[in-house]
Design goal:
This protein is of the alpha/beta class and about 500 residues long. The protein contains 23 helices and 14 strands. It starts with 9 loop residues before the first helix and ends in a 17-residue tail after the last strand.
């Protein structure tokens, strides 16, 4: 961060060649954003670093709104980076701007709008004290809830201030400013706009259009210079009675966000956001197919009829699932004393607790339960990833081995060496697993993980059977719908 300028008075600003032109131009915050957006477009510098999958869809619309100097709203389901985008807008502001020192609403030294600052400039002139405000301090965010009041957003009369200053309650000097005036010359962001009470929405659209409000019946003119950005769920935003029509009419652009449209984009987001490269005394290697299975779970969930698609399936699902899968692999490494941490397919199932709370179920899903649905989604995801690397036909010898009565058990907490000795009994298995482990640093552990992918992939395609204690056997052609007794242990 560049250090703040050292100028301390309005006169010093006027005499400084760097700031004299700024003072005369008095650019609005929307002009400032427009200028900096154009500069980044010309230089090719990314406007929203770390935002994946929106380069051809969402971001061009945001840029258009900023170039048009419009307030806008981001409409999207949970976990679609709406808040992250809003918070990154602050980096499109100038790093430092001069303000009148001590002003609650960051008044411009030459264009103050509050009475205190107008009086100060009139009395002190060039000796008016100034300070510099960093762009991070020019962003105000609020979550809209039904209990938010007009006083919270706009302001209220402060009787204590009136008593101490000897002012009447009708005096502008006794106003305690709310969040929106305090965002003057910056960005005001509001999450979940439809949750705001209608009377508060009225105050909001009035200040957007007219620049004035009434506080306790006293008219106060507040020509605020602010960019207003909102977020909302599309279902809430379009539902009748959720948001008043005049406010919708005053929002310049409605911009729709979306979930990742391909698995590689989702993986890039998950890699970026998850805490998976963690400090540990055991080196970590996450096979690429583990990333793919975990991400595919979210893709399967977003089209599953048992899950409420109006609520959505947040990108936080694969992020949290990856973290838990790695933690389970960590736990196994410490239990067995292995010198590495390599997640297996069994660790993806251990991440079910990260999935169940992130899915709103329809009636059919409620009947079945969140955990069985999460496990079903993992099975579907494994089937998809398996097809990406293998075909069922190339495992004919392996399947015949199981059909001839072959069985194996792969305990969750077993060490790699022991599992390899079990897997070697199955024809073709390790040979095919090597296809995914050739470039791995910890080859044997990744071979075991890839072998589990193969076995679970064949199980997902109903070519072999798998029992709860992770035993694999020949496919059960006539499996009962309800077990008549305790599950059979595979030896």
């Amino acid at each position: 961060m560049v250090a703040a300028p050292t100028l301390r008075t309005l006169g010093a600003l006027r005499r400084d060649p760097t700031w004299s032109d700024f003072l005369e131009r008095v650019p609005s915050v929307k002009d400032e954003l427009r200028r900096n957006v154009i500069a980044r477009l010309r230089s090719g510098e990314p406007l929203f670093p770390g935002i994946h999958g929106y380069d051809e869809t969402v971001l061009p619309h945001i840029v258009n709104a900023l170039l048009a100097k419009q307030n806008f709203i981001l409409l999207g389901l949970r976990g679609q980076a709406k808040s992250r985008i809003m918070r990154q807008l602050v980096h499109l502001l100038d790093e430092w701007v001069p303000v009148i020192e001590g002003c609650e609403i960051n008044d411009h030294p030459l264009r103050p709008i509050c009475r205190r600052c107008r009086q100060l400039v009139q009395e002190a002139g060039d000796d008016t004290p100034v300070a510099f405000l960093h762009r991070e301090q020019r962003y105000v965010e609020k979550l809209a809830t039904p209990d938010v009041t007009v006083a919270d957003l706009i302001g209220d009369i402060d009787p204590i201030r009136a008593a101490r200053g000897g002012h009447v309650l009708a005096d502008e000097l006794v106003i305690h400013f709310g969040l929106l005036p305090r965002a003057h010359r910056g960005i005001f962001a509001m999450n979940e706009l439809p949750d705001l009470a209608p009377k508060v929405q009225v105050a909001l659209f009035n200040i957007m259009q007219e620049g004035d409000v009434q506080i306790k019946g006293f008219p106060v003119r507040l020509p605020l210079d602010v960019l207003l950005v909102f977020t909302a769920n599309p279902e809430d935003y379009t539902a009748r009675g959720k948001i008043i029509t005049p406010l919708k009419d005053r929002i310049g652009a409605e911009i729709r966000t979306h979930y990742p449209r391909d698995r590689s984009t989702g993986i890039a987001i998950t890699r970026q956001e998850a805490w998976w490269q963690r400090p540990t005394d055991r080196p970590l290697e996450v096979p690429e197919f583990i990333f793919e299975v975990i991400e595919e779970v979210a893709f399967q969930a977003r089209k599953d009829g048992r899950i409420d698609q109006r609520s959505g399936v947040s990108q936080r699902l694969p992020i949290a699932a990856l973290e838990l899968a790695i933690s389970n692999a960590e736990q196994r490494a410490y239990r067995t004393g292995e010198p590495w941490v390599v997640p297996r397919i069994v660790d993806v199932y251990a991440a079910v607790p990260a999935m169940t709370g992130k899915m709103e179920l329809e009636y059919e899903g409620e009947l079945k339960g969140a955990e069985p649905i999460a496990e079903s989604l993992i099975r579907q995801a494994i089937a998809q990833v398996f097809r990406q690397y293998y075909s069922e036909e190339e495992f004919r010898e392996l399947i015949e081995w199981f059909e001839a009565g072959g069985t194996i058990v792969l305990p969750e907490w077993e060490a790699t060496a022991r599992l390899l000795s079990v897997l070697k009994r199955v024809p073709q298995l390790l040979e095919k697993a090597d296809r995914l482990a050739r470039s791995a640093r910890y080859g044997d552990a990744v071979r075991v993980s890839a072998a589990e992918l193969i076995l679970d992939g064949l199980w997902a395609h109903k070519r072999i059977s798998r029992h709860p204690e992770r035993g694999y056997a020949r496919a059960e052609v006539h499996a009962p719908t309800r077990p008549s007794g305790p599950p059979r242990r595979v030896n």
